[in-house]
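Reviewer 2 asked us to include a model.

Predict the structure of this chain.
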Amino acid sequence: MKPAIDFRSDNCGRAAPELIEALSAANTGTALGYGGDALTAQMQARFSELFEAPVRVHPVATGTAANALALAAMATPFGAVYCSPQAHINTSECNATGFFGGGTKLVAIGGRYGKISADALESEIAAAGKGLSHKSQPKAVNLVQATDLGAVYSVDEVAAVGAVARAHGLKVHMDGARFANAVAALGCTPAQATWKAGVDMLSFGVTKNGGLLGDAIVVFAPDAAPDLGFHLRRAGLVWSKMRFASAQIMAYIENDLWLRLARQANAAASAIAAGLEAIESVGLVAPVQANEVFVQMAPPAAASLEDQGFLFHRRGPDVGRFVCRWDTGEDEVAALVAAIRRSAAGRRAGR
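Predicted model (structure tokens):
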């Protein structure tokens, strides 16, 4: 049998060698635990340089931990967090935000391609019943960058949502599980994509883009979540041997490695999208702006791909999600496009 070609997710791939080397290099001597080591201090300074402002970085084990603890610290047990219906916090994290927030409510609001619309946010807040003890109170907004349909917020779109949030006293959290892919696509600086556009806190993704075991929370506005450290410690999400987490995360951003890896994944997704343009009966659900491709096709065509050994996730019977990794090869892209073309041709021929 042919080996499977895997487009299930970018967390299915290999770790970047540079991060493994950094982990090995950190494995010498002794160091104070819980972030009191020299590597963690260097990482803090390096991230402040990267984001052009003093920031505080908290390495954590997973993106779910980053999202849930950041939002729990920004909101209240009786607060509401606004998000896209497709947002990862809403669909895939078992309401971890509500658990760690002691009851924090998620409220899904509209927008295209997994985004939040600034106008929809304004309308939702206006109807929320601010000040009424009967109602959950608006506290924070969650933006996913890139979105869970593969689209990328422009800097202006982030700023528009940020402006509405500030006008009503809400904090802005960005789920950046694929932040590198978004920044690579936008061609802007990390600062322009975040705090300069009104973002208070960022879940900084590493795992999906060549990382091993960790992501991070980046705090731009300390007053947005002054008790974050307590939330992290109570949840058991402060690394004991923090230097190993910090070494990986620092290596990830050194010499723009994170952006180079993201560009490779983005380029593979763009190549798939370009190859599908001329295929009848196949369409794209959302613009391909980062490293995910959502393809609408007949269910028999999707089943044919699975029979041929392609691994991917379905979003309903007629939509397949294909995610490109930093190490997705040109041969894998070509094989997928050719297989979709064959499946579509076979369907038109009645086979």
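The chain is about 40% helix and 15% strand. The radius of gyration is 21 Å. We have added this to the supplementary material.
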